[in-house]
Design goal:
about 325 residues, alpha/beta, 4-stranded parallel beta sheet
Length: about 325
């Protein structure tokens, strides 16, 4: 799925250690207010900020758009995002992409955030945080840089498995927490309330067709389990994630499980290469899927990558998918 030494004035004072540990910036005091210090819970760890972060670096589309949706591009040193981020000219915060620097189209690294003089990195496990590459909240803490871990990606405590709450609750949690961290809680509360109202307006379905989320993979498909955003996007749209019994977020499964569950609709996650049309052609020509209802009836729906990871695009994705699922007849 997608070094310059830091100046002494940009170094941060360590307040907590561990995942999501807080490191508060030492600056000229301009960002300080009566709001601080503020503490939020992030992936089970209490994180305290004594000042408003001023040079945040975000990784990936959905995480970056959390900041944009809250109007926080002026608190960003920039974002890391691949070249295949998709269409951004129609999102409500499209102008923010022009105002915040695009730091890198490659994977986020320690060097990237150091050169950006970051005081906070917002990222997730399996997005950019990775022990194998040595890019973790603990590593950044040692460099004097704070981290906030995307709640969708929080680890469950069972090894690398991720997911500790429903995906939309994760979205609301992160918007609320970022609202606290940056002292824009009113904006966050209004955004969350608007999203809840939008989702609540989706009509209750007459029946719930089974839906399989296809991200990628030919030998084995990469898909969404119970704890990734598509689970709740599908459910709130009136469908049923056929892989909802898999206790993980984004994960690899077997084709035999897809065939056994016989989804009535396949949702393609569109990003990068191969594109959505190439994925559609593969699904329709892959012999093991020939008897699956979604393939036989050509019920294949496409959503953008940023619709399907935790992001402020999730409510609109629910509305769009709901309209499509209402066209699927009951078996």
């Amino acid at each position: 799925m997608r070094t310059k030494a830091v100046a002494a004035a940009s170094l941060l004072a360590l307040a907590l250690t561990g995942c999501g540990a807080e490191i508060a910036p030492r600056g000229d005091g301009a960002a300080a207010s009566a709001h601080y210090p503020v503490t939020v819970e992030n992936c089970g760890t209490a994180v305290t900020f004594t000042e408003k972060p001023a040079r945040t670096v975000t990784n990936d589309v959905g995480i970056t758009e959390l900041m944009f949706a809250l109007g926080l591009e002026d608190r960003m040193a920039g974002y890391v995002m691949p070249d295949d981020k998709g269409r951004v000219d129609k999102v409500a915060w499209k102008d923010a992409y022009q105002r915040a620097p695009w730091l890198s189209k490659e994977r986020i690294t320690k060097e990237t955030v150091l050169e950006a003089r970051a005081d906070l990195v917002v990222d997730g496990w399996h997005y950019g945080f990775d022990e194998g590459r040595g890019f973790t909240p603990q590593t950044l803490s040692g460099l004097g840089i704070a981290s906030y871990v995307l709640t969708e990606s929080c680890r469950s405590g069972k090894g690398p498995e991720r997911g500790v709450m429903s995906p939309l609750d994760a979205l609301y949690t992160d918007l609320t927490n970022l609202g606290e961290i940056f002292d824009v809680r009113d904006r966050a509360d209004k955004l969350v309330a608007g999203f809840k109202e939008q989702i609540a307006a989706v009509p209750e379905p007459a029946h719930r067709p089974g839906v399989f989320l296809y991200d990628s993979g030919e030998d084995k498909p990469y898909t969404s389990g119970r704890f990734a955003a598509p689970e709740e996007i599908i459910a709130r749209a009136g469908g049923r994630n056929v892989m909802g019994d898999v206790a993980d977020s984004w994960t690899t499964v077997g084709w035999e499980g897809v065939v056994q569950r016989d989804p009535e609709v396949i949702v393609i996650n569109d990003y990068g290469t191969p594109d959505a049309e190439a994925k559609r052609k593969f699904l329709k020509s892959f012999p093991p899927l020939a008897g699956v209802s979604a393939v036989r009836n050509d019920r294949i729906f496409v959503l953008d990558y940023a619709d399907l990871v935790e992001s402020p695009r999730n409510p609109a994705a629910i509305t769009a998918l709901a309209e499509y699922l209402r066209t699927v007849p009951a078996r």
